[in-house]
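Discussion board: Methods & Data

I've been asked by a reviewer to show the raw model output for two of the constructs in my manuscript, not just the figures. I'm not sure how much to include, so I'm pasting the format here to get opinions. Each protein appears as its amino acid sequence followed by a line of C-alpha cells. Is this the kind of thing reviewers expect to see in a supplement, or should I convert it first? Here is construct A:
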Amino acid sequence: MKADYHINIFFSVEDGGYIADIPDLQCCSAVGETPRQALAEVERAKVAWLAAAEAEGKPIPPPRYRPFIYQAEFAHAGKELAIHDGGDGYAPTKPKRKPKKDGNA
C-alpha cells in the first residue's frame, strides 16, 4: 500500500468556502466552494509543490502527519489511554498529573 499525505478539509467562514491543506507540505493549501472542489484543488497544488521542490533540489518530506484521533492506542484493556508524541510536534504530550494536596503525585 502506497503512503500518501493526509489532507485536512474544513469550512472557513472568513474565506467563504472550504479549505484543504496538507500539513506535511508547508503552505500547500487550496480553497473551493465545495469539499470536492477544495480536494481537487489541493491535489493539483500538491503536484505543483512536489515538482517545484524536486526542481529546486529541496528535500521532500515523507508523509508523517496523523490526526490526533489516530495517534491514541490502548496499551491493555482497562489501562489508561496512552498518547504518543513522535517529537514532531503534531501530537500533544500527555498532561502531567497535578500533585495531591499531601504533595504526592
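Construct B, same format:
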Amino acid sequence: MAGLRLEKINELLQHKISALLTKGVSFKLGVFVTVARVSTSPDLRRSKVLVSVFPASEGQYVLKTLKKEVYAFQGALNNQLHMNPLPRIHFELDTTEEEAQKVEDILRDLR
C-alpha cells in the first residue's frame, strides 16, 4: 500500500516539476533538460529529482541554475499540491546514460 502511494507521489511530482521546468526556467540556447526520475523518501520529507541534460557538458550549469530556483519550485508545488508534508526537492544529475555507455565500452573492449 505504502509503495503504491510513493509511486503515485513520485509520478505526480515528476509531472508537475516537468511542467514547471518547461514554463518557468530558461536555460542557454540548445540545452535540453528533462526530469528522468523522482524518488521520494518513505517519510515524504525529501524528494530527489534526477534530471537528464543534453548536451551532458552543460550538466553543472543546469544544476547550478536549478539550485538557484529550488525555492520557486517549492513555492509553486506548494500552491499546486495540497499535501502535508510536501517533500523538499533536491536536484541531481541523472548519470544513467553515461554509466551505461561505460559498460558498453568495456563489453566492446572484451570482444
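Answer (T.O., handling editor elsewhere):
This is acceptable in a supplement if you add a one-line summary per construct. For B, something like: The chain has a mean pLDDT of 88.
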